[in-house]
Design a protein that fits this description.
single chain, about 270 residues, alpha/beta, Rossmann fold, 2 domains, 10-stranded mixed sheet, 10 strands, Universal stress protein UspA
Length: about 270
Amino acid sequence: MKNVLLLVHDDAGQEARLQAALDLTRCLSGHLTCLDVVQVPVLAGSEYYPDAELMLLQNAQKREEVNAGRIRARLQAEDVAWSWVDRTGFIASLLQESAALADIIVLNTSIADRMTPDMAQIVSDTVLKSGKPILAVPDDSRGIDFGGHVLAAWDGSRPAAQALRAAAPLLASAQGVTIIEMGEVSGELAEDAAAYLSRHGVRPRVEHLDEPEAGVAAGLLAEMDRRRPAFCIMGAYGHSRLRESLFGGITRIMLGEANVPLFLAH
């Protein structure tokens, strides 16, 4: 894992993404690719007012030019290798197109500012369609200590296994890793996951926890609050996204409420 893809876009989550991407790139001794996106505005009734949509696009381009200048100046002062790509379009589709030669993508879990793109939706689309792991950080996050303690949520599913495998290169520098299994699970056992990591030189601790009455999502959020890990590894959308949307799936809840970075894979 060497190639980090970062979304650059002038929104409330950008600083958190940038700091996380820099820390991640240093941890991996990797290369940071900055995808600077001018989001195409969607204006209701634009077929009747084409000039209005063009004006919005031009304003977005000017704003992003200023933003790009600030970010480039900061990157010049950082000790990481980086490159820059300018694109105009829709964020989710451009991320998927740009992910082909990326090993991991840095986004936000969500963004509080409702005037910015729906980041949780972008994460969902990207993790499902790109085939790449996502490091999603809260919009108030200011860096990640990859030498800290890491939490891995295990449910025996294929997405959970994929996330753990993808995160393995990051765990060698971690102070410790705890795999938690909450309630009854199907598929591979947490001990099997621990054995897998041990062959990568990582010796995780395994904990079996009872599922609280409020459900697995509430239990995981409580464990994150209690342990304050550097980040949490988990599979994304073990059930279909439609089912998660209808019945309140764990992934959707985590993206909306987690206060620590999430390492997600499907």
